[in-house]
Amino acid sequence: MALNFQKAEFVRSAGARESFIRDGLPQFAFAGRSNVGKSSVINRLLGRKNLAYVGANPGKTTQVNYFLVDRRAYLVDLPGYGYAKVSRAEKERWGRLMESYFQEEAERITVGVLIVDIRHKPTADDVTMHTWFRESGCPEIVVANKLDKLKKSQVEPALALIRETLELDGEEDVLLPFSAEKGAGKEELLRLLTAACESWNKGE
Questions:
Q1: CA nearest 119: which of 89, 151, 93?
Q2: Starting at the edge strand that comes first in sequence, how are the strands of the sheet with 109-117 ordered?
Q3: Where would I find the beta strands (DSSP E) of the chain?
């Protein structure tokens, strides 16, 4: 049965490993650069305007935020990286928090969703996050956001650069053009997340 992403509620912000949720439900882990529109993608998926924080200044997601979807799975909003103007100590705290999440929650990550900017070559931080998802062993969906900012003729070359940079070449490597602004790609992403949840529940 498809997940109802309209039935979503904020549960907890975890600023330390002790606060991670470990109740056995599957988790969709969303990661992305601080200015890539991650919160906007999440809000588009959930059909809400401000459930995930959208700020004028990037880097507002500084903890691991859990949203319960249809009481059957968690959408996990991971701290943004690579852009926010914060202290080195704060960036190091984010890094330790992320490492703890991937080390301790790997078995619960049903699918990783890496959000990149379709207009630009993925950064070194994007490549690092992509590597973390791969090493955790979970399936990954690469969402190329801001599709609405490109002309149609620019889309395929942009996707080709992302595939090359992240070394996406297998049949299981999913690269999805997306627009949080216009909603393009939303239904396909919802379908992929539901399918991942069903596979996880079956133990596949």
A1: 151
A2: 8-14, 64-69, 73-77, 27-32, 109-117, 140-145, 174-177
A3: 8-14, 27-32, 64-69, 73-77, 109-117, 140-145, 174-177
pLDDT in tens, 79-117: 888 765 667 787 788 788 888 888 888 888 999 999 999
Residue type at 33 in one-letter notation: R
The pTM of the full predicted model, rounded to 2 decimals, is 0.91
Residue 176: both structure tokens together? 């999805």
- Cα separation, 27 vs 189, in Å, equals 15
Phi and psi based region of residue 80 (left: phi greater than 0; alpha: psi -120 to 50; beta: remaining): beta
Longest dimension (CA), the chain: 48
Q: How far apart are the first and last CA of the chain?
A: 17
**Dist. CA 41–CA 110, nearest whole Å:** 18
State the chain's mean pLDDT as an integer: 87
Phi, psi angles (nearest 5°) of residue 12? -160, 150
Residue 57 backbone phi and psi in degrees, to 5 = -105, 125
* DSSP output for 100-148: HHHHHSGGGEEEEEEEEETTSPPPHHHHHHHHHHHHHT--EEEEEE-GG
Residue type, 114: L
| Cα angle: 41, vertex 53, 20; to 5 degrees | 90
